[in-house]
Amino acid sequence: MDTPSMSLQRLTALRALMASQPTKLAAYIVPTADAHNSEYIAAADARREWISGFTGSAGTAVVTASQALVWTDGRYYTQFEKEADMALWTLMKQSLPDTPSMESWLSTNLSEGDVVGVDPHTMTREEWTPLQTTLTRSKMKLLPVASNLVDAARSQLSDPPPRRPCNQVVALPIKYTGKTAGEKIKELRKKIAEKKTSALVVTALDEVAYILNLRGSDIDYNPVFFAYLVITPASSILFWSSGSLPDTVTEQLKEEGVKIEVKPYSNIVPYLQELAKNEAAGSGRAVWLSNEASEAIHRAASGSDVLNQPLTLISEVSPVALMKLVKKEVELEGFRNCHIRDGIAVVRFLRWLHEQVDDGQAVTEIQAADKLLEFRKEEDDFMGPSFETIAGAGANGAIIHYSPSRTGPQRTIHQQDMFLLDSGGQYKDGTTDITRTRMMNRSPSPEQRDAFTRVLKGQIAVGSALFPLGVKGNVLDSFARKSLWDVGLDYAHGTGHGVGHYLNVHEGPSGISWRPYPHDPGMKPGHILSNEPGFYKVDEYGIRHEDLVEIVAITKESDHPRAKNLVGDYDGRGVLGFSTLTMVPHQRECIDAAMLDDLELSYINNYHKRVLSTLGPKLKERGLVQDLEWLERECQPIVRG
Amino acid sequence: MDTPSMSLQRLTALRALMASQPTKLAAYIVPTADAHNSEYIAAADARREWISGFTGSAGTAVVTASQALVWTDGRYYTQFEKEADMALWTLMKQSLPDTPSMESWLSTNLSEGDVVGVDPHTMTREEWTPLQTTLTRSKMKLLPVASNLVDAARSQLSDPPPRRPCNQVVALPIKYTGKTAGEKIKELRKKIAEKKTSALVVTALDEVAYILNLRGSDIDYNPVFFAYLVITPASSILFWSSGSLPDTVTEQLKEEGVKIEVKPYSNIVPYLQELAKNEAAGSGRAVWLSNEASEAIHRAASGSDVLNQPLTLISEVSPVALMKLVKKEVELEGFRNCHIRDGIAVVRFLRWLHEQVDDGQAVTEIQAADKLLEFRKEEDDFMGPSFETIAGAGANGAIIHYSPSRTGPQRTIHQQDMFLLDSGGQYKDGTTDITRTRMMNRSPSPEQRDAFTRVLKGQIAVGSALFPLGVKGNVLDSFARKSLWDVGLDYAHGTGHGVGHYLNVHEGPSGISWRPYPHDPGMKPGHILSNEPGFYKVDEYGIRHEDLVEIVAITKESDHPRAKNLVGDYDGRGVLGFSTLTMVPHQRECIDAAMLDDLELSYINNYHKRVLSTLGPKLKERGLVQDLEWLERECQPIVRG
């Protein structure tokens, strides 16, 4: 936590810069995002954190001459009040219906003629446009401020932002990706020709990594590197900070049929402006970019600061995102394989944890997370965690985005704790994300058993569902909630997210939620989703069951619990269902078999049978006899009373 | 059907007008909509029908110098090919994934510099903007053509459009509406003040009728009248064609605290232009209108044809639509009461129909619909059907938007037919919409029984669901489909629509569908929805079960099958469920009790018990002994095995 005087100093520096701009700013907005709309950001981009002290992963700060506010959601209210200097900062609880949105707060609290500034690299066009509309309606102006004022304030206070990382980039061989970079670019060029566009500008870091079959480590947990990629009918230009690419990378790209031109990262804006000028003078074709590209990139690509008549743009869901969404068979095979190895690591950890706690050893949440990482490191092709491990004992399990801190008092996992463990691994052949909930003493209360079983019923309802090809993931959300809704319970998060292949653990544009995913192109075989209902009793315990699932086509002959009952294929649209990738049993003592119908009971027993028959031989092979014995006990059939 | 030479003559006349415009039109678009975006239209507005011959309720015609096309959906492919001259017209099957959208067809098939014309009264701003964007990107132009070219072509061919109806307007007393027009306008003026807007422009016909507590008959089935209503902080101006309002209407409006100024219907555009000019010269406040208002009204309200710097508009979901959505207790009481009377009429009809068919009488679909209307006419406050009756025997039941024709060969309802009857009534105290499906010989095939039961399970899943206050209706859609999806079956329509109170039987902005309703403000007590899953076996039979339901708040004490199990209220958000308004039993012989779980079985038996105990005493009172006996048999408990 920053000291109060530091917080004030920072605010004062920023306010001075706002006042001294060529156009004086009545307010300055500091979003969380980096220039690539990344979910996780590098330290170089943690501007909202620096100005406010608040370290949560979501939130937007607004600073005026007299006020300083952060809009964030219910996950972070407590954390905000701990971290921010509450004498200087106001928390705007955006989950509450009565909290005005940032747009409406600005248009109500500023005066006509006022100017609101923001670094256009840190806001997407999709966010920019409605904000601009609201401010214009109130006779205010939204001004793109080219250099970041928080960075400038940091420099003034001799606390300059850390250097943007530019770590080593490595080539991911074709045996993991299944498709050469050359093939990917060829497909995109076909679309570029169909769209009659001059260039595709790829701004999302995972999309750049995906197209080129490269991986980096510039952002924790996400194996990506800071770069933009511009694909034209004749060239592929990488805007990257480290000069030329390593020889091994250039070599693989060459083998995969790609000749890449490398330019400095910071040249993207002038390059796009030049492109816009050339197009305006020539054929006038539009540039194609993602609607999640920043306002700065949109402005550059339309030439809005260099042309009297800016070019029209094609701004829509990225074709790379849509390509990446459908995993190739090689990627799917990798997902299946890494989930077996990941399952072994998690099973070994769970056995270890139960033994420690049964033995009366004091294991803290952090120690548990570290031990889990040790087990994962024993597995082939493990590259690191896919996100910060959520290891929540007792009441900490009820904090949906909890992760234990290495500093301050440490929570020990007790016999009488429910323990929620949400973790994942990056492997060269895939990405995992699993949550299991354990009652350490194996004696849940009736209420806990009821809730555990209801959450499981929800997971099975999604896992066993059949649905028409092409419907959006959101249609499945209510299945996951039904057994909870029936008794007045619910969970305050979505049911599923897309997952990248050795890329971001949260990947768009699909997902399963009551909230619409407007760019979800509809479900198809080869998509990967999480299936993770939960239940949280504040101050007591949390329950979440999370599997990753693969979407598969189902016919009467498929290995699926509902296959043999099929009498139609949705009038030719085709039947889809899920195949579960995750390989770790659920705790039998927490399941009330009397609450399961026949299909649910056989579903969970078949799943446990599959986990044992898949992991068992591997454990045996590796001489992990005690782990195997433990797994056998955990996978015994559940029978009704 | 028009003769081929008539069709060609009409097209030729329109093409000549397109060529002779001040700016020559390469294409002219003829949408289905009237100037109020009404779902059902008056004959005066049936322009697409006149030019193409196609009478379906949905579709958009595009005419170029050499081509003529209609985009419509799967409901109408067969009908289109029957009605349109296929030598002149091309059917664009918009439900097929490979059919280009109208936007993309225009931008591909016309040339740079071409101009596309449309009457801006017949297209909403929400439709106009994306079309304009697409055409601009292809260097084409979308031109608002002030006078309608189809109307002009009609006049040239001495077949002028019928006069716009301007039938009698009547006042609906407070005992039916529960809220005076004065109170409604006062509430809207409060919102007008909060929005700092100069005026609210009400363009939807049902919204005008709702605010003023007036009803008309200008459009079949919808008790509305052609008018616009402009509410300013100090005045209420009705743009209406018939001169002054009848004295009884003026009297009620006065009693309800409203002084109304009446101006000619056609003055709306110049009035709004004048208002825009005044605002531009004065305070510069924005006009507030619905995003479903036409492009013509948007242009007028922003002053875009009369100002150099058009005003910003507030264009969003109509506040009247949101007000109307939550029914007052008086309106709800009316809904409950009219459903009892409507139930009596439908029960009497079903008994009559079974008797006729059992007796070997030849009853046609049209005769059945007419007989049903006779029974409804016997009920108090009945004002007419709420839509054209869908009476489909056998294969006709599988045509989702079928309605029997009075001309041509007539289909008789046979013993071996499944018979699908979807109908509704307008009553002064509410609107009904009910579908029941009957197997005339009471001996469904195993497949029919299975499908009938699955559709019923879907209806019960929605009818018995509990869900958090404020979630959107679309979250319930999958519940209705689950029992069908589980075996590869589905239905090609939504599950529920909003219903007006003695107004339009289809009322936005809410509904239950896999398709998002973007303006659904979330479910609240007092909304009325339909609950109507179905199943259609093409060329054989159709099944649909449709009830209207009222959204009610549920606590542990409520009369709801899940109330006693409640252990939470969704963390304070509040629990909602449904109360079924419709009062007609489902056919017992078609229900396979073995497929119902305990809750479903007791749900259907309780429903039948409630139908009998509600309608029974009324039938008895009215001496309808045979109807009562029939109902008693139909409502007997269903038992398993």
TrEMBL record, chains A, B:
<dbReference type="InterPro" id="IPR000994">
    <property type="entry name" value="Pept_M24"/>
</dbReference>
<protein>
    <submittedName>
        <fullName>Xaa-Pro aminopeptidase ApepP-like isoform X2</fullName>
    </submittedName>
</protein>
<dbReference type="InterPro" id="IPR050422">
    <property type="entry name" value="X-Pro_aminopeptidase_P"/>
</dbReference>
<feature type="domain" description="Peptidase M24">
    <location>
        <begin position="334"/>
        <end position="551"/>
    </location>
</feature>
<dbReference type="Pfam" id="PF00557">
    <property type="entry name" value="Peptidase_M24"/>
</dbReference>
<dbReference type="Pfam" id="PF16189">
    <property type="entry name" value="Creatinase_N_2"/>
</dbReference>
<dbReference type="InterPro" id="IPR032416">
    <property type="entry name" value="Peptidase_M24_C"/>
</dbReference>
<dbReference type="InterPro" id="IPR000587">
    <property type="entry name" value="Creatinase_N"/>
</dbReference>
<comment type="similarity">
    <text>Belongs to the peptidase M24B family.</text>
</comment>
<feature type="domain" description="Peptidase M24 C-terminal">
    <location>
        <begin position="575"/>
        <end position="638"/>
    </location>
</feature>
<dbReference type="InterPro" id="IPR029149">
    <property type="entry name" value="Creatin/AminoP/Spt16_N"/>
</dbReference>
<dbReference type="InterPro" id="IPR033740">
    <property type="entry name" value="Pept_M24B"/>
</dbReference>
<feature type="domain" description="Creatinase N-terminal">
    <location>
        <begin position="10"/>
        <end position="154"/>
    </location>
</feature>
<dbReference type="Pfam" id="PF01321">
    <property type="entry name" value="Creatinase_N"/>
</dbReference>
<dbReference type="Pfam" id="PF16188">
    <property type="entry name" value="Peptidase_M24_C"/>
</dbReference>
<dbReference type="InterPro" id="IPR036005">
    <property type="entry name" value="Creatinase/aminopeptidase-like"/>
</dbReference>
